[in-house]
């Protein structure tokens, strides 16, 4: 997902929130359908790099707040993300309890939070397995 798509989605979410609704379109299945499994992971990794604290190499509550304000346009004038909200978001995906999101934790969280992505999970799994077979050399004959 590029910055323009993130801003567009974020603006739609802000508009829904300001009108009393919390609904937004789940774009993860659309992206996965267009990009395939490998392309989706590439985009998620790019999103991780946008949000991560470069010194720590992980998404912290502070790096998430800073990114939300600067890159995503969710500054204090628009109600900004509070420290508590950022910490809760990090806790949601923090599987190892270190207080930050690694790249893999972020990718798992993003997929897990997409209710529509599991509709085509079997097809994506088959695609990923097929791609892996194409990349891997056949085993040597004994």
Automatic annotation (TrEMBL):
Keywords (A to Z) from UniProt: Calcium
TM spans (from-to): none
MF term (GO), any: calcium ion binding
Start and end residues of each EF-hand domain: 81-116
InterPro entries, A to Z: EF-hand-dom_pair (IPR011992), EF_Hand_1_Ca_BS (IPR018247), EF_hand_dom (IPR002048), KIC/PBP1/KRP1 (IPR044205)
Disordered as annotated region, ranges: 1-24
Pfam family, one: EF-hand_8
Protein name: EF-hand domain-containing protein
Species of the source: Oryza meyeriana var. granulata
UniProt keyword DNA-binding present: no
Residue ranges, compositional bias (Polar residues): 1-17
């Amino acid at each position: 997902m590029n910055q323009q798509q993130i801003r567009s989605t974020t603006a739609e979410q802000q508009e829904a929130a300001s009108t009393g609704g919390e609904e937004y379109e789940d774009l993860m299945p659309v992206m996965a359908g267009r990009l395939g499994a490998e392309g989706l992971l590439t985009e998620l990794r790019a999103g991780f790099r946008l949000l991560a604290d470069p010194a720590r190499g992980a998404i912290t509550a502070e790096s998430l707040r800073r990114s939300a304000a600067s890159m995503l346009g969710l500054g204090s004038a628009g109600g900004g993300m509070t420290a508590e909200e950022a910490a809760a978001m990090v806790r949601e995906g923090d599987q190892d309890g270190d207080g930050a999101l690694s790249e893999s934790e972020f990718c798992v969280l993003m997929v897990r939070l997409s209710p529509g992505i599991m509709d085509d999970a079997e097809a994506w799994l088959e695609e990923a397995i097929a791609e892996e077979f194409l990349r891997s050399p056949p085993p040597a004959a004994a």
